[in-house]
Amino acid sequence: MSALDYAVLTAYLAGTLGLGFWCLRRNRDPDSFMLARGRLGGWVVGLSIFGTYVSSISFLAVPGKAFIGNWNPFVFSLTLPLVARLGAEIFVPFYRQLGQVSAYEHIEERFGTWARLYMSICFMLMQVARTGSVMFLIAVVMQQWLNWDMVTIIVATGLLTTLYTCIGGLEGVVLTDALQSAVLIAGAVLCAVWVPLSMPDGPAQILEIAARDDKFSLGEWGFDLSEPTVWVVLVYSLTVNLKGVSINQSYTQRYLAAKTEREAKKSVWFGSLLYIPTSACFFFIGTSLYCYYTVQPDLLPTELASEWRDGKGDSIFPYFIMTELPTGVRGVMVAAILAAAMSTISSSLNSSATLTLTDVYLRLLRRAPDERQSMWVLYGATILWGVAGTGLAIAMMHVKSVLDSWWEMSGVVSGGMLGLFLLSFLGRQVGRRGAMSGVIAGVIVIGWLTFSPDAEFLPEPFRNPLHPFLTVVLGTLAITVSGFLAALAFRETSLRSKDTSPSD
């Protein structure tokens, strides 16, 4: 990193904090902190939604996937037009009509307080895991570039992101997300142009090599459910993306933050569709790097060449950035990757703080606090979740083996969220006992799907033979179907259909 690279990075960080302080003057009450008083335009909210799709991990991992394989994961992006239509036509009007800050308040009206707390706690725990993972993985990369201590990088990232999330509220988060998204897109486009122009025989050489080695393929079209075929990735991405637009607190807050319903719908379309060419750009970078180092294998150090042979490609793009890009451009790319990380973290902190106030403090501790007390809760919760994510990132430095176990456990815990939402949204005849039975049955199914492949004590026929992508799909189906069947068995109706008030 040269002085110019540091100058570019410093200018970006200063701009991020500056935006937060500019928003501070209008961020003095809970409505401003959580919803920006519903005054944001569709395009800026759309850029913020786009920022929730992309993280620094995507920035680094997607080119790595394309480098060692093909464009099979790009199928994930191809489902976004359908999901965007569902989000704009169904879920935006649904949440704006409800007018509830918490995405899970209406579930309490159907199934009771337990369901709301279950959804909220699962979401907040997942955001801690997401924040910690992003901080840890970005620190691994940034350490190689900046030659700083990893703890210093993690703490600095956590402090900076928590600070501007606190001072700017949702408006600050959305505006900085928009800035960060612009930096990220600029960095991706820059590299997508730079690599082909660096080929010994010109850009056409990339198309020749990629076509020869089938690098643009979307994968196999067969029906082998143990492999990530196009169909497996398709149903997985539909489920995951539907979960995002329907029950992700980070999205639903933005639906309410837009000026009008029309602007909110525009933001869903804009953010979702913008991700498609951007992800294609990342895949093209990975394919271009494959061609670049195929014709010039001597440019890769022995260690990275060995990783390539072992099917690992995540380190290739960072190495190219630091060794092949000129001074100044390198600083832009580092800022772009850091921007993707900070966008992810800020969204997680703001949405988690919002749920802490609406679903925990107001629901369980104090129902009618004044604005000052509510703001202190929001500030305190933002700091609390920021510290928790930072602490988890630091812990991952020493107990990396816990990371996989944590993600497996969190998948079991949160696996019922989409299924429970579908029961509340579609199953008007499903009540509390049916919903609880469905969640219990679904979590058991998800637990078996997740843990049985590595359970040596189980005979082979009792282990899950399916690809892990299908776990969330089958888990959601299990919860939904079990809930409907249990409702029929109990012959019950929901709390709302009885016209009773929410009950514990």
Description:
The protein has helices at 3-24, 30-35, 42-53, 56-68, 75-78, 80-98, 105-111, 113-146, 150-197, 204-212, 230-247, 249-257, 261-295, 302-309, 316-324, 329-365, 371-395, 400-414, 417-426, 432-451, 470-490. Residues 400-405 and 497-504 have low confidence and may be disordered. The longest helix has 48 residues, at 150-197. The chain contains 21 helices and no strands. The radius of gyration is 23 Å and the shape is globular. With 504 residues, the protein is mainly alpha-helical. Helix 9 crosses helix 16, helix 12 packs across helix 13 (261-295) and helix 20 (432-451) packs antiparallel against helix 21 (470-490). The termini are far apart.
Radius of gyration: 23 Å
Tally of separate helices: 21
Helix content: over 70%
Ends: how far apart? 57 Å
Structural class estimated from helices and strands: mainly alpha
Q: What is the helix/strand order?
A: HHHHHHHHHHHHHHHHHHHHH
Give the tally of β-strands.
0
What overall form do the CA principal axes indicate? Answer: globular
Segments where pLDDT lies below 50 for 5+ residues? 400-405, 497-504
> Into which percentage range does the β-strand content fall?
under 5%
Summarize the biggest pleated sheet.
none
The overall pLDDT, averaged over residues, is: 84
